[in-house]
Amino acid sequence: MYLRFVFFMIIFFNISINAQNSLPKGSIKGMVVDAETQAPLTGANIVILNTLMGAATDSLGNYVIKNVPAGSYVLQFHFIGYQTLTKTDIIVRPQRVTSVNCGLPESYLEENAVVVSAGYFDKQQQQPLSTISFSREEIRRAPGSAGDVSRIIMGLPSIAKVNDQSNSLIVRGGSPVENAFFIDNIEIPNINHFPTQGTSGGPIGLINVDFIDDVSFSAGGFSAAYGDRLSSVMDIKFREGNRERYDAQLDFNFAGFGGVFEGPLLNENSSFMISLRRSYLDLLIKAADIGTSVAPRYGDYQGKFVFDISPQHKLTFLGIFGDDHNNPDREAALENDMIVYGNQDIYENTAGINWRAIWNKNGYSNTSFSWTGSYFKEDYFETNSSIHLIKNRSTENSFKLRNINHIRINKNNAIEFGAEVKQTYIDYNNYFSEYTDAIGDSTSAFFINDRIDALKYGMFLNYLFNPVERLSATLGLRADYFTLNKNFHLAPRLALAYRLNPEITLNAAIGVYYQNLPLVLLSQNKKNKDIDDPRSVHYIFGIDYLLTPSTKLSMELYQKNYQNMPLDSQQPGLFLLDELFYRYGFFFNHGALNDKGSARSRGVEMIIQKKLAEEFYGLISASYFRSEYKIDNNWTDRVFDNRFIFGMEGGYKPGDNWEFSLRWIFAGGAPYTPFNISQSEQINRAVLDQNRINKARYPEYHSLNVRFDRRFHFEKSNLVAYLSVWNAYNRKNIASYFWNENENKKDVIYQWSTLPIIGLEFEF
Q1: At a CB cut-off of 8 Å and minimum separation 6, what does 474 contact?
Q2: Tens digits of per-residue pLDDT, 191-244?
Q3: pLDDT confidence of 284, banded at 50, 70, 90?
Q4: Dihedral of the CA atoms 116, 120, 126, 130 (nearest 10)?
């Protein structure tokens, strides 16, 4: 089927090239605002570099550049008293509007000073540390991502390399539990299909990257505006739909097939954008009639609706819905060496509204109200014995009100403050059968029949100031209270940035972070609700060096100290939150937990990032780190301790139509605990060797992903065709070792072999 499709594409390309005799035209429009206060800037100049085209903003900060030939461009934004910013990868398509908004930060240098533009890197002055941003086009074309926003950032040095089959983010020695995701000021607990309950990880991304305007990812030291997470924050901004005409896009790729539809909703002051997608692997397997093979089935529906009440007030409605189904039977499990099989049906939903209000030229606020719900219906059976291991019936609902306000007092002083209230309703009706735990001990069967009705309160205050000309600082304090366990926390945070000169900036941060444990874990025993919440302290120091206007070097040193981590007294040598890696969830009886665990992570990271100012772009990254936890006063490696990671990705764009890109990642072998072979053979189940916890290591990981993109511009439509090859030289990377209960022996699971992916995006 793939060969037939490739043959068709070759013929189609040849025919299509003849249809491109002249380039059709599109337009660029957007808004230019003050990056700090969001107030519109009147009279800002916008120039398309290497052309004679440009525009200026009107009294509301809006601009439009019409009759731009279809292609790829670089835009530069100028305004007196503000830093110049340059945005690359602006794609103009036939008869379509490309929206490019820009927030300009105030200039920190005097007018008569010599200024070297750092405009290719759009960062927030007051919170620059450990943060990197990606534009819409950088997200779309990333090799090895398959349209998954989590996989796009896996080339960063702060992310441990886990497994190609999982997009779980392991940030600076953390775990998949410790990450937060926000879309347009609305929190999304998990942005994946088939989410691992109680965490932020999963195998396949849920978010449609065609909706994304930009992504900002913070690996540490984030401000007091974000709470209840120990490691990272991903802040995603969705673009708005076309307000002038109705557009459509049809997609076919690895994730499935679907479409995006957008246009004006009522008038030019409103817009809508909806997406519908469905996977197709199950349809192919059914059509091919290849026996017992089973593929998961999933789909998602997303929408954004925008209404401008006035130039100062905007309402945004957001909806993201996903449904996932996987139903392998015992015959398929035996054929594919699966330890368990069963039925999995998961539904996850988020809907919310955000009100953005610009009160005056010095202040604005964002206020959102949202609902998040998920339903898990899962039954798992042991393949060897057909024992019903797990029955999971979980209904999780929460309602959240979030408010953020920003007020600039004067040029050197500003405050940011806000509050959050979250009402949680959860029903657990779960059964876990008697089973052998990781160290070979028998655990009794137990039920969870628990209803949780609890409130979370949070408040924060940030003071942003410039005590001297070149020094900017953010002093923050956050307070949180959870009625379930009556835990109250105060978390102070401080971030500093000192500009030695226009090219070099020194950064530092220190902060305290708290997080509630997953409720599915706390519900296993009533005593668990009385333990303290995990706590981490971040220490970070870094330097940014602008090598050229489009190339930046960043280096950071960090240390994270963890306290109050949960431990299972029945398995004292294992770190409980790492069980997500080798047990795939909190689905085993742990009984009463204690909060005596401690851990630490420390390392050094380096990134060289080059924006697409001309024909080349790229990112080179490296890190050396250690991630450990304490057992009997001895430090032991955690399962995500790769120690060394090196990544290299980039691309070549010789013109508007062709693009070639690649990503190569090398990572040290992660630790694992070997099996106790004799005991495992005796009971024909995996039993870990308690005397060698995380003392062995997998072989080193490395893999190459390549991608080729070809654009076709027609009179009123646009086609993007691409071929991406994962693991191009077919490296046999080991995912894990497992105990093959069919043959009563140790066996191995490999990560993905060479995988070609063909995709089409047709816009009309």
Answers
A1: 126, 127, 223, 462, 463, 464, 493, 494, 495
A2: 999 988 888 888 888 999 889 988 899 999 999 999 999 999 999 999 999 998
A3: low
A4: -120
Task: Give the length of the chain.
Answer: 764
Q: How many CA atoms lie within 13 A of 336 on its CB side?
A: 15
Which residues of the chain does CATH 2.60.40.1120 include?
2-104
Summarize pLDDT for 107-151 with one digit per residue, the tens. 765 444 444 454 677 654 444 567 888 877 887 778 877 778 888
CB-side neighbour CA atoms (13 Å) of 620: 4
Q: Is 576 helix (H, G, I), strand (E, B) or coil?
A: helix
Q: Tokens in use for 321?
A: 């819905």
Tokens (6 digits) for 310: 């006035």
Which residues belong to CATH 2.40.170.20 in the chain?
Answer: 131-763
pLDDT tens readout for residues 585-618: 666 667 788 888 999 999 999 999 888 877 888 8
State the pLDDT confidence band at 22, using cuts at 50, 70 and 90: low
Q: Which CATH class is domain 2-104?
A: mainly beta
Q: Mind spelling out the 3-state secondary structure of 308-372?
A: EEECCEEEEEEEEEEEEEECCCHHHHHHCCCCEEEEEEEEEEEEEEEEEEEEECCEEEEEEEEEE
* Cα–Cα distance for residue pair 118/125, rounded to 1 Å: 12
Burial class (CB in 10 A: 0-12, 13-18, 19+), 70: buried
Cα distance between residue 154 and residue 642, in whole Å: 14
Q: Give the H/E segment covering residue 159.
A: none
Helices marked H in 127-261 — which ranges? 136-140, 149-152
Outline where DSSP puts E strands in 638-683: 644-652, 658-667, 671-672
Residue 696 DSSP SS3: strand
Which residues are paired to 705 by β-bridges? 663
Q: How far apart are CA 509 and CA 496, in angstroms?
A: 6
224 burial via Cβ count (<10 Å: 0-12, 13-18, 19+): buried
187-192-193-198 Cα dihedral, nearest 10 degrees: -70
For residue 537, give the nearest of 556, 561, 555 by alpha carbon.
561
Residue 611 near residue 550 (C-beta atoms within 8 A): yes
Q: How many CA atoms lie within 13 A of 264 on its CB side?
A: 8
Rounded to 5°, the CA angle 291-293-299 comes to 125
SS3 454: strand
| Integer Cα distance of 664 and 650 in angstroms | 9
CATH number of 131-763: 2.40.170.20
pLDDT tens digits, one per residue of 510-560 = 999 999 998 888 888 888 888 999 999 999 999 999 898 889 999 999 999
Question: What does each C-alpha distance from 239 to 91, 99, 316, 318 come to in angstroms?
Answer: 14, 8, 11, 12
Mean pLDDT in residue range 380-391: 87
* Cβ 181 vs Cβ 630: under 8 Å: no
Determine the 3-state secondary structure of 293 from DSSP. Answer: coil
**What local confidence, expressed as pLDDT, does residue 262 receive?**
93
Structure-token pair, residue 520: 């599915």
* pLDDT score, position 301: 93
CA distances from 186 to 23, 119, 535, 668 (A): 40, 29, 24, 36
